[in-house]
């Protein structure tokens, strides 16, 4: 390994160490309460060193959100691979199961993704073009998979052929985000006021979504 390669490797290690420390700080203290001083202390670097690798707290949080996106997509791919050949409707059900499981098992990553999906943090001044482009690519990967399943379902005769697959994919994703966010944030309310569990709410919502596109 040459000197330049070694330096680049060391740089990536330090960068990852900072991200790991920041993730711990943000997830335990809360993003709004956390500071770059907190991140630097947890990473055992000076704040100046942290700013060498990340130009803002917003950039760090955005890249942590990307980690969550990667994890969620990885879980989805694993589910698909293990399932083998199934119908489009079954695959859509599996996607819903993965998204809900992810939201329960990784609530902090899910929270970061929700904040990205429901706001325009990708246009924060501290977010780099590279991070924004990677996030868009991950989002498009999800959309393209949904579009493919909708097309497959039409070919199988299970999904309505009058639907615009791209718009339908975007609507389904938006609905999933909204339902999972409600199940996550309003659990006590729906239990107390409607005697409904998050599991029941999500199951009913996913069934309704699928019925709305069935042939």
Automatic annotation (TrEMBL):
<feature type="domain" description="HTH tetR-type">
    <location>
        <begin position="12"/>
        <end position="72"/>
    </location>
</feature>
<dbReference type="InterPro" id="IPR050109">
    <property type="entry name" value="HTH-type_TetR-like_transc_reg"/>
</dbReference>
<dbReference type="Pfam" id="PF00440">
    <property type="entry name" value="TetR_N"/>
</dbReference>
<dbReference type="InterPro" id="IPR001647">
    <property type="entry name" value="HTH_TetR"/>
</dbReference>
<protein>
    <submittedName>
        <fullName>TetR family transcriptional regulator</fullName>
    </submittedName>
</protein>
<feature type="DNA-binding region" description="H-T-H motif">
    <location>
        <begin position="35"/>
        <end position="54"/>
    </location>
</feature>
<keyword id="KW-0804">Transcription</keyword>
<dbReference type="InterPro" id="IPR009057">
    <property type="entry name" value="Homeodomain-like_sf"/>
</dbReference>
<keyword id="KW-0238">DNA-binding</keyword>
<keyword id="KW-0805">Transcription regulation</keyword>
<dbReference type="InterPro" id="IPR036271">
    <property type="entry name" value="Tet_transcr_reg_TetR-rel_C_sf"/>
</dbReference>
